[in-house]
Structure formats: structure tokens, C-alpha cells
Prior knowledge:
Oligomer: single chain
Keywords: Membrane, Transmembrane, Transmembrane helix
Largest sheet: none
Transmembrane segments: 6-30, 42-69
Helix content: over 70%
Shape: elongated
Mean pLDDT: 88
Strand content: under 5%
Radius of gyration: 17 Å
Amino acid sequence: MGEPAMGLYWLGPVLVLAFLGGLMTAAVLLRMGKVHGPRRVLAAIALPFGCLAVPLLALSLLAIAGGVLRP
């Protein structure tokens, strides 16, 4: 067997950057006082994980599209 045609060495750093971006955004929202009430606090806590899901969702959609469009 050979090495795969496309490595996913870039996925780890992209996921870390997405999580940190969401974490920084949540921290800024909390610091600015834009978060009031229990629902908004829960949304601020979930924001980094939502940002983490975006690259994984994009990679999944690309993998599905690549499988469907394969000749």
C-alpha cells in the first residue's frame, strides 16, 4: 500500500484554531456584558464547540461530494 493521496495533517491545527476562535469570541461577548440570562450563557459556552463543528461538517460534506462525484 502507498501513502494516501491527500493527507489530513492540516485538520488538527484548523480544529484548534476554530475552537480558540470560538473561545475568544465567547470571552469577548462575556467581557462586553452582552450575555444576560441563562440561555445566553449556555449559548456562550456552546459557541467554541459550534465553531469546532464547522470544519468537521465542511470536511464531511467534501468527502460525501467526492464519493458521489467520483467517475
